Amino acid sequence: MAKSDQVAALKAGALEWKKWKEANPKRRPDLTGAALSGLNLIGVDLNGARLDGADMEYCVLKQANFSGASMKRTNLQGVDLTDAILLNANLEGAILTNSNVTRADFRGANLTGADIRNIKKGL
């Protein structure tokens, strides 16, 4: 279950999230099942975060860092992942339908069972 202080910090934007992370360097972010639809989180650092089952539909996640994040069954429908880093992220069963993945780095990511219909990828 998502931690309310973490959800509030993330909903306040990438800058507030960065402050939360700096104040809590040893805590692994737990946003499991969080309702985060439509947020503008350009450049957010969610490295190693637990996002299983989170709803991130239509978020702007350009240049975000999801390296090593657990994103099983996360709803990423219609998100903008342009230039995002998803190295070794677990996206098993995630929904990426109609998402923009232009120049996103998925090296080592687990996309088993992910819905990647109609993804947009440019140069």
Provide a brief overview of the structure:
This protein is mostly loops and about 120 residues long.
Indicate the proportion of strand residues.
Answer: under 5%
Any idea what the radius of gyration is?
13 Å
Structural class: little secondary structure
N-to-C order of helices and strands: HH
- In which range does the helix fraction lie? 10-25%
Distance between the termini: 37 Å
Number of strands: 0
Structural domain tally: 1
Largest sheet: none
Task: Flag low-confidence runs.
Answer: none
Mean pLDDT: 96
- Structure annotation, total helices: 2
Which key phrases capture this entry?
single chain, little secondary structure
Any overview of this molecule?
The chain has one domain. Helices cover 15% and strands 0% of the residues. It has helices spanning 4-11, 14-23.
Helices and strands, with pairings:
Layout: H1 4-11, H2 14-23
